[in-house]
Amino acid sequence: MANPETGNSVWLDLTIEDAGAVKDFYSAVCGWVAEDHDMGDYVDFSMKNDAGDVVAGICHARGDNAKLPPVWLPYIVVEDLDSVIETARQKGGTVVDERRMGRSGGIAVIQDPAGAYLAFWQKPQT
Fold first, then answer.
1. Counting Cβ atoms within 10 Å, is residue 124 exposed (0-12), middle (13-18) or buried (19+)?
2. Does residue 71 contact residue 78 with C-beta atoms inside 8 Å?
3. Structure confidence by residue, pLDDT tens digits, 90-100
């Protein structure tokens, strides 16, 4: 994960119907190595760079991602996820996925008024 400071992009996921069908494409084009990421009844992929760092995910449009179109989804760090969700709604955005806080923090996915998707991540409460 990149620098988890407020306002920074810290993660990137590709969500598509068949993640397995494109993992080799991105391995070849970006030089990434795909590693299986067990999701229970299916497998998504963690993509690693030459140094072995996980730099992105390639995910099936299932489970929490079922509501997303085929999209590269960046995650932006925020201090107050509830405030971001409320502001997004007030400014004409749509909350697509409002996940609760857990061990790894909280996530919300919004669609902006132009139709683009963006995820927000709040660090876990300590």
1. exposed
2. no
3. 999 999 988 76
For residues 87 and 117, give the distance between their C-alpha atoms in angstroms, rounded to a whole number. 15
- 4: CB partners within 8 A, 6+ apart: 10, 77, 123
Nearest CA-CA partner of 36 in 60, 65, 17? 60
Cβ–Cβ under 8 Å, residues 28 and 21: no
What is the DSSP-derived secondary structure letter of residue 103? T
* The model scores a pTM over 0.70: yes
**Amino acid found at 9:** S
**How many angstroms separate the CA atoms of 9 and 77, rounded?**
6
Query: Coil, helix or strand for 35?
Result: strand
What sign does the CA torsion over 50, 51, 55, 56 have?
positive
